[in-house]
Amino acid sequence: MGIGNVVHNEFATCVDDETGAVVERLTSPDVTSHHMYFYAHMTTADGRWLLYSPEVDGERQIYLMDLFTGDATQITEGPGVDDWGAEFTSDERHVMYHQGDSIWKVSLDGGEREEIYRTPEGWHGRDIGVSRDVNALTLVEIKKDTMAAAIGGKNWDFFKQNCLAKPLCRIVYVNLDDGSSEVVHEERCWLGHTQIRPHDPDTIMYCHEGPFDVIDARMWLVRRDGSSVRRCREQPSDLILTHEFWEPSGKRLAFVYREMSGTGVEEIHEIDPDTLGERSVMPCQTYAHCICDKAGRFFVGDSQGDPTPIHLQREEDIEARRAAGEKLNDYVYLIEPALGKETRLAYHGTSWSARWGTPQDAHPHPCFTEDGRYVLFVTDRFGHPAIHRIDLERFLKER
After folding, report:
1. In degrees rounded to 5, what are phi and psi of residue 176?
2. pTM of the complete model beyond 0.90
3. Fewer Cβ within 10 Å of end Cβ, the chain: N or C?
4. CA gap 271, 255 in Å, rounded
């Protein structure tokens, strides 16, 4: 299959038997599909277009789905496409994607494409983060000969290995208008998840990757000129902090705070990036991921019925639960921080398994569409991982 290939997705609807929410399946459970990483700019403001990656004929490419009709057009081809690494530019006129050593820019009006940036030989690029305000993105580059293992694969073995290896990593800032680039920060530590601060494109958030009990601290900030490298907060070895994201105003970053000992507190926290002042927003479920809508009114999260950290879950235990039909607290929750309230939207029932090809494929990764109308999530409850959505406007009206 090549660029321009069109597939048609037949949407299917069911009603969650516990919450009454109408859940619409957007992709077939016969094919592994997922949307982009949950904090990415993957839908358009008019609610019409979605970037996603289905596995077609054994390969994964990026497709642009018309959410009105289900028709999806392939916009990448060839080997080495990062099936999580595509985002709309801030003006939504182009899509940026990562393939092999290159970052490409493709026009949605005419399909012209341009190689914007190429990672130098001997380095491995990953984790692009496109600004929502200016024509720029950031990415992490890892010196290949300092890595302990390939990133990804069919299990989580690489996770601890690369963390302990302390590979030489750097954060690169790329101007999308002219392709110019600059190294922002470099250190012997596995870095990841660069995110440019909304309304302040000179501030970048990133993380120290690895298991919670091995890393020194997860969340970090740096200025574009390389100054003011700062840890957002301390992280004792019995504390999980995940998965950090910018709130749309840029005034705060948010994350889930989870104690692995003592009382096992689980809370949503916020940090002011300028003062590093931290506050607890509210207690919460055991979320693997959560994020807020553009208006800042709601959060959405994917609870884990098995509180074992995802990278430590064993495939045999996952299989045993599925075979027994065991139903855990695996739900998508709508969160209203102003009220301190969580409401079950739907049972996602995903396995969290790495069996489909990568450890991320069966993660729900819930998120809001840009217009705030829908919640998207992935589950393999009905077969292969497939993308689903819930009409939040309808849910709230009927509730």
Report:
1. -80, -10
2. yes
3. C
4. 9
